[in-house]
Amino acid sequence: MRRLSGSAAGSQPRQLLLKLLQQGLAAVNGRSCVHAALQRVSLPHGLYLVAIGKAADAMAAGAIDAIGGRLQAGLVITRYGHQDTAVYRDPRIVSLEAGHPLPDEQSLAAGNALRLFLANAPTDASFLFLISGGASSLAEVPAEGISLANLRTLNRWLLASGLPIDAVNRVRSAFSRIKGGRLLHDLGGRQAELLLISDVPGDVPAHIGSGLLLPLDHGSLPELPAQFAGLPRQPPPEAGNHRVNVRTLATNRQAMEAVMAGVRADGRRACMHDSLPAPDAVVCGECIAESLLTAEPGVHIWGGETLVKLPAHPGRGGRNQMLALAVARRISTHERIYLLAAGTDGTDGNSSDAGALVDGNTVIRGKDAGLDAQDCLARADAGTFLEASGDLVYTGPTGTNVMDLVIACKE
Predict the structure, then answer these.
(1) Residue 379 burial (CB < 10 Å; 0-12/13-18/19+)?
(2) Domain at 287, CATH number
């Protein structure tokens, strides 16, 4: 952890939760996972590397560690501030940064660079694709007739819609020339290894990064607002001879199991839950809090991803901060309960914080600063409250992205 604000740096239970988060992140680190995976496969010389996503640089670094001189050239596309110095300085690699969660001009430039990179590679080239969450926003080639403004408005609506990821991806793909398996056309039947870090429920490969090389289920789209009715849509991709080997290297479950192992090594009772109790972040937090109030002492672990339906003008924070503040309201004045909710990529919503670590005095500390927890939740402004209470957790880029971890300790 690079920084832990205010009171969140305090007691022994808090330090335990932060240590467990670090252990979970280490188990799904992009660099180590890719390096280990490539030790077990035979790859040709003259390999062409493509890495896209929030973990792109870490994954690319793992590939460089493993294949060394066999790398011919590479293209790495990641979020602003997520570049790795060693990857950036490798003369064989072009490193680009782009916008997330909304695509920007650099996202379109990255999408065009991706297609050009594939077009310029030899007809007999072999590719190594490394895809992680965030790829959907970071590289895009919209359908003809769709402007960047159209694209940003559509994605802003999708982020606030509360739709499940499969529906979101069907919408994104309908207006894209590379998503939903359409990049296969640019691959042109050449051999590719596709290594994935999963940030989606169920770890469905085609849902990760909107399935650049994996055709989605092109079923019916969810109902869209009238403002998008006239946007031109892409037809489903054509069937072809595709030579893509797919492996998923890191999942939320693996991170949870690493946390579980850490709890047992600490000699505490551990309980790993199969799923989060509700899809909505605030409702989920309230359910978790109620269960903790009656639970036996020990550590509880959840993983996955909640949703937040945003108001017209949301404040600061994301789903983890919303969940944590909802928990804090219900456990207020209970001295022996602590909860950490964090995005494994190191970011949460529109903030640069990973999440928050709350306890029974969080609401009191925020109230002393002149804030009301319920009001902040209603305005999707949990981050402002949690900054005032001293409970935000900052990790910086983590080199992975496997959804969220929620870890609670009851003494």
Answers:
(1) middle
(2) 3.40.1480.10
State both tokens at 330. Answer: 């219900």
Angle CA 51–55–61, to nearest 5: 65
- Cα–Cα distance, 82 to 411 (Å, whole number): 37
> Are residues 289 and 365 located together in one domain of the fold?
yes
Is the pLDDT confidence value at 304 over 70? yes
Q: Is the pLDDT of residue 11 over 80?
A: no
Residue-wise pLDDT tens digits, 117-174: 999 999 999 999 999 999 999 999 999 999 999 999 999 999 888 888 889 999 999 9
Model-level pTM greater than 0.90? yes
Alpha helices by DSSP H, 39-147:
56-67, 85-89, 105-120, 135-138
What is the domain extent for residue 116? 29-250
Dihedral pair phi/psi, residue 38, rounded to 5°: -75, -15
81 and 188 inside one domain:
yes
Lookup result for tokens 């042109």 = 188
Q: How far is 262 from 21, CA to CA, in rounded Å?
A: 9
